[in-house]
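User: quick one, sequence for these tokens?
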């Protein structure tokens, strides 16, 4: 086993896993979520998987909070790597005219039994790194606010960076509903963003871009890109195309990737970024244990002694429907001389297309 994989497995052992009962309940709860997101294949599978103990036992190796995403992503990845299995006919990413989703389960169950060892290995060595280029929209308002407070160029450290797509949010253009246009007119991607309330926005000038991840995605590797694609719902073909464009931008951008546990890496990285600094995370910390979250709070407070910096958390509330305009809770924390002042400042839709400041 490669050294990087052993390191990832060691770090991932500290992440909370799920029980079989919790896995079954969590997957069942995803039926309505996948229907809302226009993912009929995964909705159909989510109805049947909880009824099969052998499949639930496989799913129990996944990260707590995301057994459906992790399990389906692993299966999708294996099919993308070798689409000759009959199950591939149900995936829009692999079949021009996909077969009816309601007929997929028997072949899905058989695939999981045949490839159990491979699936479990993926669940133990790969994290949930679902990445959508559209999430860059969530970055603009809070990072604009932080830059106004601290100054520029603004260094960014992203916890759970995956491939680093969010670290390139300044490379795209944004049409702001009723508020004009941000970014270059010839940007490779243009997003439409409805920001409700709040101050005037700008795209801050960035300094260092630092990404932390247990297993950062190498965008120059087709296999690594395949893992990101596999974590997206198969019906989301336009989103896949936008992600591919964003990954090309990432490949041309200078980003310092750091592999390992953020709790071990952060102190040195923060000390090495003495200027304006923002630490951010999106759909990441929700997978951490309560103890790890508390350790992060203590670590950041201690690191702020003799200086100040901000933290922007953009975490999902999985208790809310995906269509809710409060699905993403945006929390800004100001750290200064060992003290932390934290506040929920805004909510956003899952894709960041609607961003609502609270005041």
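Assistant:
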């Amino acid at each position: 086993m490669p050294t990087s994989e052993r390191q990832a497995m060691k770090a991932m052992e500290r992440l909370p896993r799920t029980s079989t009962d919790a896995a079954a309940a969590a997957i069942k709860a995803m039926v309505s979520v996948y229907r809302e997101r226009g993912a009929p294949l995964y909705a159909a599978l989510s109805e049947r998987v909880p009824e099969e103990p052998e499949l639930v036992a496989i799913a129990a190796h996944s990260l707590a909070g995301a057994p459906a995403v992790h399990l389906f992503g692993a299966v999708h990845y294996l099919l993308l790597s070798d689409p000759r299995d009959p199950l591939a006919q149900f995936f829009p990413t692999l079949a021009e005219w996909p077969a009816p989703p309601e007929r997929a389960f028997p072949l899905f169950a058989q695939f999981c039994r045949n490839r159990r060892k491979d699936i479990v290995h993926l669940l133990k060595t790969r994290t949930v790194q679902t990445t959508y280029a559209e999430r860059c929209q969530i970055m603009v308002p809070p990072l604009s606010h932080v830059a106004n407070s601290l100054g520029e160029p603004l260094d960014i450290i992203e916890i759970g960076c995956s491939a680093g797509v969010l670290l390139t949010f300044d490379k795209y253009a944004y049409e702001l509903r009723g508020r004009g246009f941000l970014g270059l007119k010839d940007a490779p991607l243009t997003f439409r963003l409805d920001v409700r309330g709040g101050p005037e926005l700008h795209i801050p000038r960035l300094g260092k871009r630092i990404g932390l991840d247990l297993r950062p995605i190498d965008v120059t590797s087709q296999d690594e890109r395949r893992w990101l694609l596999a974590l997206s719902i198969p019906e989301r073909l336009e989103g896949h195309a936008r992600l591919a464009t964003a990954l090309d931008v990432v490949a041309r951008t200078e980003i310092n990737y750091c592999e390992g546990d953020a709790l071990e890496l952060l102190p040195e990285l923060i000390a090495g970024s003495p200027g304006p600094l923002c630490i951010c995370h999106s759909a990441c910390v929700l997978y951490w244990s309560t103890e790890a979250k508390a350790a992060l709070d203590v670590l950041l407070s201690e690191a702020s002694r003799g200086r100040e910096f901000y933290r922007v958390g953009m975490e999902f509330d999985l208790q809310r429907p995906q269509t809710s305009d409060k699905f993403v809770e945006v929390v800004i924390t100001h750290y200064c001389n060992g003290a932390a002042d934290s506040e929920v400042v805004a909510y956003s839709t899952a894709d960041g297309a609607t961003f609502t400041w609270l005041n």
